[in-house]
Amino acid sequence: MSQQMINSDFAVRANSPDSERPVGPALLKGLRCRCPNCGVGKLFSGYLKSVDTCAVCHQEIHHHRADDLPPYLTVFIVGHIVVGLFMFVERAVTLSMWTHLAIWVPITLLLSLALLQPLKGATIALQWALRLGGFGGDADAGSYG
Length: 145
Hints:
Radius of gyration: 19 Å
Number of helices: 4
Strand content: under 5%
Order of helices and strands: HHHH
Helix content: 40-55%
């Protein structure tokens, strides 16, 4: 089968009204920063800039609404990890405030930067799987009226 035929098959299957879009596999594809439809195409053209359409299956991505949820989830996850580890270390050993700052600020920044893009990918994939924010095939579904 030719690549163009495979690409058009992905687009037709995923965008038909009766096609099934399982949430679990879509979320895993999104966490890997891949297209939720085919799992092959890249979801981002930059660190947080999503592509307009998938280069492999031509799934439109531009109308997603992944604005506030990824940063919220990042703060929630990183906060729980860092505060929990801080409390454990504080109880186990006595460190100066400067040592704590030298440890926890870089860990917080690195965890935040590492989690933000995959969580945005998962949010886009969740919207795709649930047909939210324009992924349902309606022409005006992406607008708020």
